[in-house]
């Protein structure tokens, strides 16, 4: 009888991580899934409900900020898929917080790799990087982005464009990982997607789902995000996870691999989505944006040259975004679905992300309004018996600008 193969997936409760666990289980792997809190039923329930999870899945507590916390999970594994990354980097503007999260990203990957070295069983280390470590160039290429390019970190510090700290942290971490791999004899392969679309398993949305649903929800912050990123490189979540497994198993896989099957801008996204949701009155014109501006694609020639095939390559961007939207309607956006169906919502309603606990998070939503109705309140107050907890919740209320 063939011996069962054991692998570890970090960040298993995330968008890509959970789908990767699903695909590995389907292929008969025994999967050790690391999460920060295995006792958090909301985050791990979707993993525990996957086919074959009762026999082939185990949850392990590990944290990128804690050295050696991945040791036990990785010991005995032949493969490690390092998917975990602090996505707070995309939205962080506080310099002190930036440094802390950058440090967590860098030290986190090195901690996982040190655990691989200690285990002495890991045959290949697959790291989920991003095309953000490739695309930020002072002089972009004329035809396409390829794996030999590295994002200009100094350019990021100089201009501090949207998500710049994410680019800095991921680029710095990946370079450090390659150095460690070379010095310590680790067979490492990196996978580089950007926007990942399609159905998702977890109850929480991600940066990619925010981008995919922006035109549908008319969320102003997410709309602004898609406008800033003129050309979006995208891939179906199923394809990116299959690419991870393919590169783990292929004996000739080596180095960095861009994983992108689609390239589009907000105009193409709007024209493709509009007919699918005619009741949403999705806009097709965007002031200040030039629809004729050339989009430079991220090339997946290296990955395809190894024999990999994108299953979802023939779907248009509207199909991919629609899958994401429908998944949100069924899971992540249950709280707003009734709002979107209200009379006149198509023309007069916009959704804004804000949190009572985050200073200034209401600024953009309130700017330009002649009236503000503050209805939000932490309902935990009704059920809180811990005096310290009550103080924290009260503090959140007082923080509202």
Automatic annotation (TrEMBL):
Signal peptide interval: none
SUPFAM superfamilies linked: NAD(P)-binding Rossmann-fold domains
From what superkingdom does this record's organism come?
Eukaryota
- What InterPro entries does this protein map onto? Epimerase_deHydtase, NAD(P)-bd_dom_sf, NAD(P)_dehydrat-like
Q: Name any one GO molecular function.
A: dihydroflavanol 4-reductase activity
Question: Pathway listed for it?
Answer: Pigment biosynthesis; anthocyanin biosynthesis
One of the GO biological process terms: anthocyanin-containing compound biosynthetic process
What is the stated purpose of this protein?
Answer: Bifunctional enzyme involved in flavonoid metabolism.
Q: What is this protein called?
A: Dihydroflavonol 4-reductase
Q: Which organism is it from?
A: Heracleum sosnowskyi
Starting at the broadest rank, the lineage of the source organism is: Eukaryota, Viridiplantae, Streptophyta, Embryophyta, Tracheophyta
């Amino acid at each position: 009888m063939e011996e069962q193969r054991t692998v570890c997936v970090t960040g298993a409760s995330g968008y890509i991580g959970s789908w990767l666990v699903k695909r590995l289980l389907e292929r008969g792997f025994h999967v050790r899934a690391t999460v920060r809190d295995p006792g958090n039923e909301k985050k791990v329930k979707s993993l525990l409900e996957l086919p074959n999870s009762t026999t082939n899945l185990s949850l392990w507590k590990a944290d990128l900020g804690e050295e050696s916390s991945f040791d036990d999970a990785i010991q005995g594994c032949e493969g490690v898929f390092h998917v975990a990354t602090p996505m707070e980097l995309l939205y962080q503007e506080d310099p002190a917080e930036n440094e802390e999260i950058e440090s967590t990203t860098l030290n986190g990957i090195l901690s996982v790799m040190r655990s691989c070295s200690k285990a002495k069983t890991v045959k290949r280390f697959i790291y989920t990087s991003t095309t953000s470590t490739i695309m930020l160039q002072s002089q972009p290429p004329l035809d396409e982005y390829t794996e030999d390019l590295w994002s200009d970190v100094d350019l990021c510090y100089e201009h501090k464009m949207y998500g710049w700290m994410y680019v800095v942290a991921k680029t710095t971490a990946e370079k450090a990982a390659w150095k460690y791999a070379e010095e310590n004899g680790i067979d490492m392969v990196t996978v580089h997607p950007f926007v990942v679309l399609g159905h998702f398993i977890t109850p929480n949305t991600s940066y990619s789902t925010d981008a995919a649903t922006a035109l549908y929800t008319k969320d102003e912050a997410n709309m602004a995000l898609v406008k800033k990123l003129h050309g979006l490189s995208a891939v179906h979540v199923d394809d990116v996870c299959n690419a991870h497994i393919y590169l783990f198993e292929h004996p000739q896989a080596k180095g960095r691999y861009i994983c992108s099957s689609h390239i589009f801008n907000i105009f193409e996204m709007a024209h493709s989505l509009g007919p699918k949701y005619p009741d949403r009155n999705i806009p097709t014109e965007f002031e200040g944006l030039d629809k004729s501006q050339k989009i430079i694609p991220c090339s997946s020639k290296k990955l395809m040259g190894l024999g990999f095939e994108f299953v979802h390559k023939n779907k248009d961007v509207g199909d991919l975004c629609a899958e994401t939207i429908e998944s949100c309607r069924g899971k992540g956006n249950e709280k707003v679905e009734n709002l979107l169906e209200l009379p006149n919502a198509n023309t007069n309603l916009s959704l804004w992300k804000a949190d009572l606990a985050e200073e200034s998070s209401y600024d953009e939503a309130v700017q330009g309004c002649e009236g503000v109705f503050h209805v939000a309140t932490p309902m935990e107050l009704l059920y809180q018996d811990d005096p310290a907890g009550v103080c924290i919740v009260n503090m959140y209320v007082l923080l509202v600008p």
